[in-house]
Amino acid sequence: MDKVEYTKKLLGNLVKQARAASMDQEELALRTGTSKNTVSRLERGKGINSDTLLTILNQLEVLDPLIETIEKEYELVSNNPLRKSSLLEKELPNDF
């Protein structure tokens, strides 16, 4: 299992545990403006829209730690030099 699949499973488990303590999938779907099917997909480690994911994490009050982690990671990379864009248009090979 690669990191992306592992992370989706981990997020799904987190959502399921946090949700199950206070509501069912249908209630979470109603509170977040999504469908029960989307909540189920998330909890099974399937991909969903990132806006929906963040809305669900916020509703379950587990978004703040994620924001803190992202802010810390951003601080680490924020001083990295940005790649200079090429002023010349590059012709890419057409391998199709």
Please, what is the CATH homologous superfamily? lambda repressor-like DNA-binding domains
- CATH fold descriptor: 434 Repressor (Amino-terminal Domain)
Taken in chain order, the helices and strands follow as HHHHH
Per CATH, the architecture is Orthogonal Bundle
Count of helix runs: 5
Keywords, separated by commas or semicolons:
single chain; 96 residues; mainly alpha; 0% strand; 5 helices; 434 Repressor (Amino-terminal Domain)
Word description of this protein:
The protein is an all-alpha fold. The protein has one domain (3-76): 434 Repressor (Amino-terminal Domain), CATH 1.10.260. It is 61% helix and 0% strand. The chain is built from 5 helices and no strands. Helix 2 packs across helix 3 and helix 2 packs across helix 4. The radius of gyration is 19 Å and the shape is extended. The two termini are 30 Å apart. The mean pLDDT is 92.
Short description:
By secondary structure, the protein is an all-alpha fold. Helix content is 61%, strand content 0%.
Task: Produce the secondary structure layout.
Blueprint: H1 3-20, H2 25-32, H3 36-43, H4 50-59, H5 63-77
Helix pairs in contact: 2-3, 2-4
